[in-house]
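Quick one:
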Amino acid sequence: MTGSVIDAEDIVQDAMAKAVMSLREPVMVRNTEGWIFRIAHNAALDFLRQRTRQQKTFADEHLSVVADDIDRVQQRQLAAAGLRTFMRLSAAERSAVVLMDVLGYSLEEIGGITESSIPAVKAALHRGRQRLRTIKLEPDDRPPPTLSAAERTRLSAYVDRFNARDFDSVRDMLAEDVRVELVGRTRLRGAEAGRYFGNYEGISDWHLRLGVVEGRLAVIVTDPAKPDGPPSYFILLDWRFEQVGRIRDFRYVGYITESADISFLTRPHEPRTLS
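Output:
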């Protein structure tokens, strides 16, 4: 829905928090999974409205079109479409295709989750499938990400010191009020950040590499036994001048790497796209 695994994970965390808060009051939930999907779906729409400053609603469409039947091979092909491809669909089309062809919901269930009529769901599903088939034939005209030499130098220094387990030098790179977020687990600030690095000192299941996630420089974490292997998870750093102001570590939600657009940067900083 968002085209970004990073933004999507924020929405997932927000949706789960809202669900937990709702359960503090007496509530009748017959379909827990569908109920949570509805919360997440609405949170995604709120995010899109805020990002584009345009209302994206699921208005009923008085169309007689019936969602086209597709075989399992076509369904798998649609489900394998990347986030960037899905973002070229409207919000309504993305919802319909993802919920049916990726997650396997029925038309009635999708209508309940998106609070749309069955004709509207059918129309969105039909248009979304047709659009995806067209998009597959179009060339990838994305411009390569623009990465400054200063950014790469800064992040390379962080990665090198971390891999050398020189955590005193890593701490010297932090802003005094640095914020650390272990996504899905905990948040730390300022002096509390010492716990974060102390935990990394006590484990050895990581090797850091320089990379790009969704067009932005990132720390890619791999298995130290296979440093050139697939990513286990990634870490994002926000810089305040020459110091790290924020660390977002996705260690505990590593599943998002399955959909993320990730590249390694090898010295001298030539990108290698992951398969």
